[in-house]
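As the work plan foresaw, our protein records have gained a structure token line. A representative record is set out beneath this paragraph:
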Amino acid sequence: VQLQASGGGLVQAGASLNLSCAASGFAFSDYSMGWFRQAPGKERSFVLSISSSGRSTYYADSVKGRFTISRDNAKNTVSLAMNDLKPQDTARYYCAADSMPIMAYEPERVDYYGEGTQVTVSS
């Protein structure tokens, strides 16, 4: 299983950033996909996810209305559009895949993670 995330970087508060994750090595359309993040000194936490069918999405309260997740089952990719970024969004963002149709919120219950990509938001 490979989950290759890209698109991270350094931006100012209020800016937008798009992350992408290319998946391989598993039946992508059978897996729920999502993003978790981990800031220095903090535990990894759920950000948002999309069901295997793509019909349902789930968001942490902290990103509702600012972040959007989408998937392309033909291309085995999942994307994260982040708008109105805040300094508290600074973290390493991990693409995640889970064999359940709907991803769990608890990071230890997720099947696979990629290496992650760093997002830094300056004030």
Notes: The first strand starts at residue 2 and ends at 6. DSSP finds no helices and eleven strands in the chain. The chain has a mean pLDDT of 97. Residues 88 and 121 are 8 Å apart (CA to CA).
